[in-house]
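Deliverable D4.2, example record:
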Amino acid sequence: MTDFSGMSFNCNGIGNKVKRQKFFTYVNDKIKKGFCFLQETHSTPNDEGKWRKQWKGEIFFSHGTSNSTGVAILFSKNSPFKVLKESKDTSGRILILETENWG
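Output generated by the structure prediction step:
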């Protein structure tokens, strides 16, 4: 069995680059192998590239608007999970990942 960590946060928006980088650094320090659930990301499809560069691990989105909703799941760089299936809504409120622990 592989050890892993998980967290969940209400971000209240992480569109600001400085706030997002501080937040990603904090989460990365806390979770070496695992995941983090985010709500109220206030993300849009245009944010994905920037966020992926800053996070370094895998990130999955269900976008809302730049000022409301949005959820995401972050996997650490060394996460023991493999994503098999992704399901999400179009309003940025639901994101379901089917995973397996390959670690």
